[in-house]
Amino acid sequence: MSTVLIIGAGAAGQVVVKKCLLDPTFTTIHVASRTYRRCEELKEACNHKIHIHQLDADNTDDTIALVKKINPALIINMALPYQDLSIMDACLKTNTHYMDTANYEPKDTAKFCYQWQWDYHEAFKKQNIMALLGSGFDPGVTNVFIKYASETWFDEIEHIDIIDCNDGDHGHPFATNFNPEINIREVTQKGKYWKNNEWQIIPPLSVSKTINFPEIGKKTAYLLYHEELESLVKHFPSIKQLRFWMTFSENYLTHLNVLENVGMTSITPIKFKGTDIIPLEFLKELLPNPGDLSSNYKGKTCIGCIITGKKNNQKKTKLLYNICHHEDTHKELNAQAVSYTTGVPAMIGAKLILNNTWTGAGVFNIEQFNAKPFMDELPKHGLPWKVIDLNEPLD
Of 162, 161, 145, 218, nearest to 386 (Cα)? Predict the structure, then answer.
């Protein structure tokens, strides 16, 4: 019996639940969220085929109690990144495998860092359980793309540019495609990329480039720091340069600039009518729920990796990418493509753990495992991938 506990019933978490229901690997599915109303709505949408629970995953003892009650083989963490360590602690106390899609960051500091979770490696190894980190799209599929390229086309990889374009239109003046709080924290922190064996730090959104995205065309993309850079540098020491690029509409950037200028993106508490509030958390409540965007969403996403390396001492460049249409994902699961591209890889990662294709004791990033089984699953579950040869890397 493959019983799973999915913590988090947001837009991407709902995709994970619905995709698990379509695969016989998952025999019993439990879903837990702080917002019980979301669980109830999801259960209704799933024809009552799931079990639901109210849970504040910040409370490790409550999570332990729920895990002991339902005895899952695996916890799929689709909650907020702040809760990663609490959930991992619960896994250690109950001898349960763990998986997530985004690395831990402290609530009071906008900072990506895997080290907090890597520090759990020996404890998970001692318990003979596995933690799989970053099984979303980016991080996740992008890491697997690079591992697959290393297994298939290259003896060593030297340069990587991860490119992410959402060419969709949801019709709202300003909205984020996943949790607004996490999205805005990510975009407004300093940029960082790897070059010549050290990190290069730049002001937020200060470097941009026109990139020709396949099946979309030329778009302006901005250099950001993203968590997969940290693990990829660790596991592919031949990398000389590693960057992450993401597109934003002018409308998004204008709104973000205004909100930042008036202090609405701050995570520093302020007093409002005698109560401490965090401006960004308040802003989150005003913005559209990412899970409600799909009905009017038009267009598509393109996410991929431009990879340059050597094979038999000959240099070459490949672009490995996926195209996902908002209209298609809405029709299939009532989800927009950004949620879909996060949720589907999470289900695939969980499946490969449960069927013992990926095994191990300790804490692992997704690129540490054989890429082919994951690559084989992607098109079966709605995320076909393509590869093209390029004449040269991104300059």
Answer: 145
**Integer Cα distance of 38 and 289 in angstroms:** 12
Asked whether the beta carbons of 73 and 45 are under 8 A apart, the reply is no
Classified as helix, coil or strand, 165 is strand
Residues 124 and 171 in one domain: no
The per-residue pLDDT for range 146-178, each reduced to its tens digit, is 999 999 999 999 999 999 999 988 888 888 877
**What single-letter DSSP state applies at residue 123?**
H
Query: pLDDT, tens digit, for every residue of 93-140?
Result: 999 999 999 999 887 777 778 999 999 999 999 999 999 999 999 999
Q: Is 127 exposed, middle or buried (0-12, 13-18, 19+ CB in 10 A)?
A: middle
DSSP, residue by residue, 327-350: HHHHHHHS--HHHHHHHHHHHHHH
pLDDT of 14 reads: 97
321 SS3 class: strand
Residues 188, 129 share a domain: no
Determine contact, residues 79/8, Cβ cutoff 8 Å.
yes
Q: Helical H runs in 95-245?
A: 115-118, 121-126, 141-152, 180-188, 228-235
pLDDT at 328: 97
Domain residues for the domain of 210 are: 141-335+384-390
Q: Which two tokens stand for residue 250?
A: 């002018």
